Structures are given as C-alpha cells and as structure tokens.
Predict the 3D structure of the following.
Amino acid sequence: MDNDRPAGLVRVVSAFAVAALFALPLVWALATSLKPSGEYVSASAALLPREFTLMHYEALADSRVWRLALNSLAVTLGTTALALAAALPAAYALARFDFPHRLDALFLAFVLLVKLTPPIVLAVPLYQVLRTLGLLDTLAGLVLVNQIYAMPFALWMLLGFVRDVPFVYEEAAAIDGAGLARRIVQIVIPILGPGLAATGVLVAIAAWNEFLFAFLFLQSPANFTLPTYVATRINEDETLWGQLSAIGVLASLPILALIGFVHRALSRGFAGGLN
Amino acid sequence: MRALNRPWLLLVLLAPAAALFLLLTVYPLARVFLLSFAASDHGFEGARFVGLENYAELLQGRSFRRAAWNTAFFALVATVAEVLVGLGLALLLDRAFAFRRALTLVVLAPYVLSTIVVAAIWRAWFHYDVGFLNNTLRALGLDGVPWLFDPNIALLSIALADVWQNAPFCFLILYAGLRSVPPELYEAARIDGAGAWLRFRDITLPLLLPYLFVAALMRTLDAFKLFDKVYAMTGGGPGNATETLSMHVHRLAFRFFDIGLASAAAVAMILVAGTLGAAYAVQLLRSEAR
C-alpha cells in the first residue's frame, strides 16, 4: 500500500481534526466528572471546568460503588479464567489431531453461529437453566453465561496460536518420555504466552463491559456490576452527569490503559471484534 | 509420530468446551425452538402445543412489525455510516506522519468502552435543555434539536452514538485491507498517469471489496442485536419509535411472561441472523476457493 509514503499537510490536519472529534465525548466525560453540579447543568457550551472539584470522585469513595467494581472484577477474572481453561485444551486437540479438512468449515460454521445468535434469544431459556442450577442472582451464574461468547471466541483465537507452535519441540519431549499434560504445560503454554495474553485481554474487556446478561440475571443491587449500576442510575435522574461521568471514567480507565495492547491484538488479522 | 491419535484423549480435551457449548447454546436454542410452538408462561410444565399460533399472532402484531422495521432501519443506517466513516479514517491514516499511531489509538478508544458508558455520555449530549450538542447549536445561533424526543429523529440519534462507538472497528478492518494492496500497483498506475481518484476507483476499491463486505456484515449482525444502547438512552420510546427486536423479545418474556410468543420472536430473529450469516459463509468459501 501507499502506507509508507509521507502524508500531505491537508491530510495531516484532517487526521488531527477527525481524531479530536472522536476524542471529544471522552474529554467531555472527564471534564464533567471534575465540574461542580451547578456548572454542567447550564446553557454553557464550555467544555473545560471553570472550577475543578473532586466531589464526584469523593462521593464514589463514600458510596458502595467500589464494591460493585469488585463484582465487575470478579466476573471479569472468572469469565476469562474459565474461557481460557475450557478453550485451551480444545484448541490444542483441534490443532494437533488429524482432522479431515471438511471439519474446518464445520468449526467455522460453529463460531459463526455463536457470533450471530442475539443474546436476548438465549436469555429466556438461560433463565431456566440458571434457576435449575441455583445460580440466578449470583456472580458465578454470570461467569457461566458469559461463556456463550467468551469460550468460542477464545477457542477461535487460540486455535490460530496453537497452530503456530512447531510440533517438533513436542516430539523431542515425547521421545524423552514427557506425557501430554507435561508437554502442554511446559512447552505449549510458554510459547503461547503472548497469544494467551492477547486472547485473555480481549475476553476480559468484553466481560468487564457486558450488560445484558448482568441486567437480566443479577437482581440484588449488591450483586450489580458497574454497567448495570450505571444503567439504573441513568434512569433515576436526568442530570446526574457528574456522578455518572466519574463512574464512567473509572470503569473505562483500566481498558483505556490497555488500548495499545488491544490495538495490536485486534490488528493481527483477527476480524471478529470484541463483541 | 502424531501428537494424538487416541480418540479418548481427544474427547477428554474437547469435553469442557463441548459441555459449555451444549449447556449454554445448543440446549437453549432447542428449547426456544420448541417453546415457540407452545402457549406457556414459563416452561414446559403446563404448556399447551399450539402449532404456529404464536407465529401468526406475532406477524399480525403491530409492535413486532414496528420493532422489525426499527431494527432493519437502524442496522442499515448504522452499517452504511460506520463503513463509510471507517473507510474515511483508514484512508486518512494510511500515510506516514508524526503521531499517526497516537491518533489511531485515540480513534480506537470509543470502540473498547462499555456500551452503557457510551449511552450515558450520549444521552447527556442529547439532552434538550442543557445537553452539550444543543448548547453548542444555540451558541451558534441555531435552534436546539429534540434528539431523543422526536420519534422521527430518536433512532437516528442512537445510530449517531453507535457510529462513534463502532466506526473504529470498521476502520481497523479496512486499514488492514489497505495494507494488503501491493504498492507496485500504485506505482504502475502513477507511471501511467492515473490521478488519485482513478487510483482509488480502479485499484483500492476493488481490492478492498472483501474487507468492506466483512466489515459491513459484522456490523449488520451486531446492529441487529441492538439492546443496551436503546434501553439506556430511550427505553424504546418515544412511544415505541426506538423499540428493537431484542427489546421486543425482552418485553414479551420478562414483562408479559408470554414465553411462547417471545420464543417465536426469538426464532424469527435467529432465522434472519442465520440468513445473513449464511451469506457471509458463502462469501468466505468463495474467497478461499480463489
């Protein structure tokens, strides 16, 4: 491509202008979280706070929101761990077993089927499944239903990474008498490191952001995750923007800190996206 | 030697993933399909088999047709806008300049946010009296727009928020597509005296088509599921001007407890999504055969 040719001035200026437009809603949210309430509920189009205040963040610290952040964190870590634990052995089997090539198309169809199934379609029967298992209104139940999308996504990504691990290393270890479990733990996983990390981060972000299942299956306010809490607060009061922005900023910071990593993971030719 | 040609080992390795898939996807899909032919308020106990009655009721129902129309309209508008904006971004950032990677990350930021956070920001921006957008319009001497109050505008406003969040995804795909075009082609075209527009029309666009297709399809499938944004921004209103199929299924199941009807609506959704997905699979197989 013309990718390495230098850009003209018009193009550079346009690129900065468009990026500024994309950044604007986020800048607004950050600024609003630092404004006193009287200042943002006004007819002023000013973006930057006239006087800075940390009141909205202090109010968060006093409230129980940080406990909901812990709920979000628990769901995120649980979802990621379970997805990787289930997907890695399966990816290994699919990569290392002599399958007829027709099955590749079948596997692709499976991934696609999952991707195109709207979550609300599964929500009705899943409600019954969770109730039967006694997992309604529990974080563990949410970790379980998150696997609908997390596990196939992880499997899809890991399959590519396992295929890149040369089998020669394993053969050498097998000759020395290493069993399958040891080969996976001592050879495959270390080589997979970066791929596992990329997969884990993408799964974690999707789990951290997930709303619909959390909204349907977590009923007690004490069990809410951050997105469900924000959704309930949005409808309570039209202009709680300082509070909401502060929560939004806190919920987004961990992800935005990883954005360089996410960019690399997504640019690796993987077009499945986050959700 | 082969790594594993012992079938039982294969089964052990595949078991956890297969169990999750069967429990959370296959079983629910089968259940929703069966319940769509039943009159039921929660499950199979006490359910009566009613054949295609649910489907008949669904297709006659005004609100289902409205939800289907809203969803199709939103999916079309949002997808077209997102692919075009994504293409513009990809072309803009396709030449080397200082801070290019930093700008790429800034543009990518909205895509990784929680949809609920996106909805919270835009709902505040769309506020009629003191929202950032109307404040800006009024500062310029223009009238405020009833972004979320006007039934004819509300869905477009939600699409605008969706474009901000998801155009970066199209940008990523199309940017990868641009990088796959061999530079020699452009060189040759330059030597032949082809201008920028000709080079774009005759080289970039044809080679980018498969990428445009993938981006459009991914976004269509995703827009088709729309729930979170509408729930948090308008709740489906004003009236039912922004109610989507996902919200409709949700209301039937979790407000009216009409599981049979909700299941029929769910099956209808799967059929449409499946048709879209099949088109995608065919396209994929074609491009692999080439």
Observations:
- Chain B touches chain A through 111 residues (CB under 8 Å).
- The mean pLDDT of chain B is 91.
